Amino acid sequence: MEKQGLELEITELRLGLPGGGDNKINEKKRVFSDISADEANATNDDRKIHTKSQVVGWPPVCSYRKKNSFNEKDRLETSKMYVKVSMDGAPFLRKIDLGMHKGYSDLAMALEKLFGCFGISEALKDADSSEFSPIYEDRDGDWMLAGDVPWEMFIESCKRLRIMK
Amino acid sequence: MHHDLALQQMSEDDDRSPPLDLRCASINKTRNCSGGISASGSSTSSSSSSSSSIPVPVPIPITEYQSPYPDQVLENVLENVLHFLTSRRDRNAASLVCKSWWRAEAMTRSELFIGNCYAVSPHRATRRFRRVRALVLKGKPRFADFNLMPPDWGAHFTPWLSVMATAYPLLEKVCLKRMSVTDEDLQLLAESFSGFKELMLVCCEGFGTNGLAFIASKCRQLRVLDLIETEVTEDEVDWISCFPEGETCLESLIFDCVECAINSEALEKLVARSPSLKKLRLNRNVSIGQLYRLMIKAPQLTHLGTGSFSSLEGDPELDYVSAFAACKSLVCLSGFREIIPDYLPAIYPVCANLTSLNFSYANITAEQLKPIISNCYKLQIFWVLDSICDEGLQAVAATCKELRELRVFPINAQEDVEGPVSEIGLQAISEGCRKLQSILYFCQRMTNAAVIAMSKNCPDLEVFRLCIMGRHRRDHVTGEPMDEGFGAIVMNCKKLTRLAVSGLLTDRAFSYIGKYGKLVRTLSVAFAGDSDTGLKYVLEGCPRLQKLEIRDSPFGDAALQSGLHHYYNMRFLWMSSCRLTHRGCHEIARAMPRMVVEVIRFEGEEVIDEYVETLYMYRSLEGPRHDAPEFVTILRADG
User: Fold this and answer.
1) ipTM value > 0.85
2) Contact B531 A2 (CB under 8 A)
């Protein structure tokens, strides 16, 4: 019985976690354990993670409407930023949604999982430290080394990704 | 709005009758019907004694049916009569009378409604119904709209289309909701049905302007092309230019959700050569200047979506008022995607005739709304943003005495902010709009008193969806839970069929729903309830329940068990972030072999919890689907 929830003073305007004890239901799921310090402070919204005051799919405004929202955060949340990713030596192209990642290390983890390899996060931090060179094609058609510009700038300009060896 | 009425018809459930062959579920609700379900090719089992009242579907050969019965004349008469029977509920009932009626009904059903694309296979459907002209097909559950379901879950149109391309050459109309549609599908559709007339895609995705180009160019009889809240990728194809030269049959062209730029010159020419065009809804890339040029070519329009309603550089100052004044038949207005409020007065001439007005993308204030709304005395459907505040709603209540449907959307869909609308707006609406049938209201604070007032003032309410955006919010005046308010709604609104609850709710609220909500078909629950008892009240108390969607509520396996007697009567059950365990879900799967019990994981979720992230289950004649992605586990009856 969730009596704890009723005993808490829930005033209408709160800055902290709403619901108090009932958050037990929310806490257990989808917690990403590795959050590097600089990305914890990133303002980029992530669709899947439970941030302090945001829950997936709540309030229930359908994603179509959120996309047209006047609220920048809502729009970012729902925009899909699919880019093609190729890796030297891998037979297939993959697609990933950049908007779903919080930062470079999150992206690196996803790429490592996608291609079954290691060393991409090192490459993003320091270009010489790993066998990989992740590069991306920007809006002007130029190929740049990934990891130099701030994350938000990167996802706005990246059109495709290539992991060179 | 036409599409809203059509959507409402679509979301009205299968007239409370079970799908094609699951007869015994409705005939004998208290029994587990696994043994009694008859289907083509499979044998009926233990309930054969009662199966005399359940016709066994006879496999129909491909060639024209040869009746061995002496009353062939009677059967022909029956077929002619049944042509007039349009309601699918009536048709389902007629098909149960006897074999001959079953056959006649199957031969004469021209509109096929499939509420869940996985409940029945395309082969089974086309084997039974031979002469279908119109298809309505629904896929994903509604919570997929809120990103609660990972992409690529399913609901593909392709398998349906590939079967129908040969089975229904005379198909004229296809209406899809929450389905995944590809460009190749649209190409095949355009090429397979020479008489194709109407395509409606609601909340669909998976295709782009390439697909639209096929439809435009190849469907020579096309009357309706309606894209509603559908994602269309930009393939850089000028699909508007793909419509053939010469006069078209177009009656409705709705593409306000298509995000790509439009060749406005081609659109003007298209409108000019479409004399039957009554409904035109433009996307946000059409400026008000372009709108003007379109409107003067189509004064016969009844439904208009205005596009951006703002001007581009180079748009001359035009007499927008006269353009609107010329549209004497205009009854439905929407659009205003990037509105410049200075242009609002242009619509004054049509206000008095409007029955439907959609301002839900227009960030306007109460002051800007008032001069408009004070003339809209015939208005029946009104969608708006909460930017108009309680004051704006009071203005609506003062004038719109005919209002049937109100939707108030949040301009800022966050918790923990000050909201512009509250119980004051709701109260005003309840007092001014006594004929209200349907309401969707987003707010940050609410009181039981206002909800109770609405329950008493608006006895015709069929749809009550209140979304208090802060989770677990109490009545902000009394500090009480919102139980009494929702209790009053189910108690006093005797026609209520759809309910969405929010705010702090205890099991008491659910006891009210179970006790009084006897007609409720659709129930949406989020962050509510104390214990299993809450859900039990609902499952045991609501005999008409068809669609139940629950998230983040403390309901567990015991509660799930309490619905066993009823699940075969339902379209689906969705429970996410509740207290269900894998074992509990397995037990359901074992007890109900005709339910497809899907356990859905979110991508990237490594932790194997004891709790199930998402349970989505639905009745089906086909067993587990073969197109499930790897993040979906379908629990089998045999463990």
Assistant:
1) no
2) yes
